[in-house]
TrEMBL record:
Protein name as it appears in the record: LD-carboxypeptidase
GO biological process, any: proteolysis
Organism whose genome encodes this protein: Hymenobacter jejuensis
Pfam families in the record: Peptidase_S66, Peptidase_S66C
Domain LD-carboxypeptidase C-terminal: 172-288
Domain named LD-carboxypeptidase N-terminal: residues: 14-129
Amino acid sequence: MPTMPPSLRPGDHVAIVCTARKVSHEEVAAAVDILQGWGLKVVLGESVSAEHHQFGGSDELRTRDFQRMLDAPEIRAILCARGGYGTTRIIDAIDFSRFAASPKWIAGFSDITVLNCHLLKLGHESIHGVMPFIFHQSGGEEALESLRRALFGESVAYEVAAHPLNQLGTAEGELFGGNLSLLQTITGTASDCSYAGRILFLEDIEEYLYSIDRMMVHLERTGKLRQLAGLIVGHFTNPQDNAVPFGQTPYEIIDTYARKYNFPVAYGFPVGHEPHNLALICGRRTRLTVSQAGTKVEYL
């Protein structure tokens, strides 16, 4: 069972770093205020305001910054400032040995999916949740509160309305997942964790419909889909199409493959690249219940 880092307490130090795309101090100022309002002390990494093309500093700088926060005993959580692209460029240079001896929460989503999966592969829980760059976005209040509850160890259960494509049933297993394109990117790497007996959640943004289909074919051909205990399908924001239409929505594409199996599937779960992006704890043993009344996700 994955290790659960200690819950945060008022007075704890938390760090904000960039493992992917760049951000400025001004772009995380609102997040700093919010975190301080939670009673936390905020430390900004050197990657915040650093710049190397689109990245938050060079690969070397981002690696050094993240490593320093991992190893610093006073830092009790690391919040990745934003996604974009770049975490896969540095993940293999990170040494998690000191972290393993004293785990701390690491949180983010999108490009941070690689970290969520890498940590699970190493046997540690992490949080898939809203990032400092968008803490203050309109409509994201519930998502932000769900992140706070996850960090501080408060109990939570989510209930979501029924969806026509849902496959009914109940499953229990460790929860994991994130961005579909990142899950495919890390296949066969040191960050690729097992799907067997777990509950997978998926989301993505601005992907071409044919590409979503191709990635689902890949999950099926690798045998990963058939190993699942359950599937949660979140936001697929702003999907793209070709001049000759693909002919299916993202959910219809996923249903084409998910319907081949008997595990429960929940569509329309609020996770992904939209303001309503509820925090999910990767590695936490979870019960997924999909019924005519709707979907319930609760930690065990």
